[in-house]
Every structure is written in structure tokens, then in C-alpha cells.
């Protein structure tokens, strides 16, 4: 038994030990930056479209007409109550089958992230709309503004101003959640990092680097949320 243990120790001693070497990342930094650029581009596009969608949904949810309000409420609760990964898979795999349409992966990702962003920002705008005083609505009536002019020139600017801090938080969350799009083959930062780590058999260095890149982008944005709330929102919104 002692001889067997000795052989095991001898074999283990001869096995190579992987050294941590982050210099191996340097030849691939352009690929990682390209993946980051795609991640930021998709996040920005979906954040803008999703925020506009969220504002429209928040207005429709405040309607007194049940057949308008209920579908919007169902949409929001569904996308807030299910994992984003399931939503991505459903848009990527199920919609092409149901509609018999060929949807490119990038378009599928934009649709899924936009619907997700619209659902979470609708709650942000709904709270902002409730904070607008009744005097603002009365002033619109006194000025005989049309409903479109009221929403565009009075309600939307004030709601947007009040919603800026939570909207920034939602954008940060969307940026971090966007790492899931690598699961449907879109070459974002996470996908590039995983591909390189698999081809080089150095997951520790590359996945750590990817995590640091996400942190270096997300952390300043989270600090910006606090800065905006302290200096901008309190000065102009109230």
C-alpha cells in the first residue's frame, strides 16, 4: 500500500502546474475590445429603444380602459418575472418557428433586450408619472393643449428628469445582463472571452480579464447614478 501511495505521489509530482500569466491576454486585447464595443453598442441601442417603450407602456398602464391597461400589465409582469436567459431563448428559437420567419441572431438579441428593458423601465416611468403634481395637468387643460402636446412637451420632460437616476441603474443592469447573449452565439465580450479561453485553455486569465472589463465599465456608471441624484435631480426636479 505504501508503494502504491509512493507511485501516486511520484506521478502527481511530475504533472505540470499551470502558472497564472496574464501576459497571455495582451495578444488578444483587440478582439476583447471588439467584443466590448458590440456589447456597448447593443446595450446603448436597447437602452434607448427600451426606455421609450417603457414610457409608452407606463402611459398605457395608467389608462382607465381595461383592455388597454391589462395587456400592458401582463407584458410587464411577464418580462420582470421570468429570467432574461429564457426570454432570449424564446425570441431566438420560438418566434422563428411560430411566425415562420428567419430572424438573425443580432435582431433576436435586440428584440429580447428591448422588451426586457421596456418592462423594467415602465415601472420607473410609472413612479415618475405619479410624482408629477396635479397642477401640471390642470395647467395643460387651462392652456388647451392637445393630449399629444401635453405628453410631448409637459409630461415626458418632467418624467424623464425624475427617472434619470433609476434609468441609469437600469442601463447598468442591462449592460451586465447582456453577458447572457453569448449563449445564442452573438460575439459580444463574454462570447469572445469564452472562445479565447477555450482555444487557449487559459480560462482563469481570460475570464478574469472579462470580469474586470465589465467592472471597469459598470463601476463608473454606478458612481454616476449617485452623482446625478445628488447634484442634478435635487436641483431641477423638485
Describe this structure in words.
The structure is a single chain. The N and C termini lie far apart (79 Å). Helix 2 runs antiparallel to helix 3 and helix 5 crosses helix 7. The radius of gyration is 24 Å and the shape is globular. About 4% of the residues have low confidence. The protein has nine helices and no strands. It has one domain: MetI-like fold. With 238 residues, it is an all-alpha fold.
Short description:
The protein is 80% helix and 0% strand. By secondary structure, the protein is mostly helical.
The CATH homologous superfamily is termed MetI-like
Radius of gyration: 24 Å
Tell me the domain tally.
1
Amino- and carboxy-terminal Cα gap: 79 Å
In the predicted model, the low-confidence regions spanning at least 5 consecutive residues are 7-15
Question: What's the rounded overall pLDDT mean?
Answer: 83
The helix/strand series, from N terminus to C terminus, equals: HHHHHHHHH
Architecture, according to CATH?
Orthogonal Bundle
Largest sheet: none
Give me the number of helical elements. Answer: 9
Strand content: under 5%
CATH class: Mainly Alpha
Stated plainly, the CATH topology is called: MetI-like fold
Oligomer: single chain
Helix percent band: over 70%
Give the tally of β-strands. Answer: 0
What is the overall shape? globular
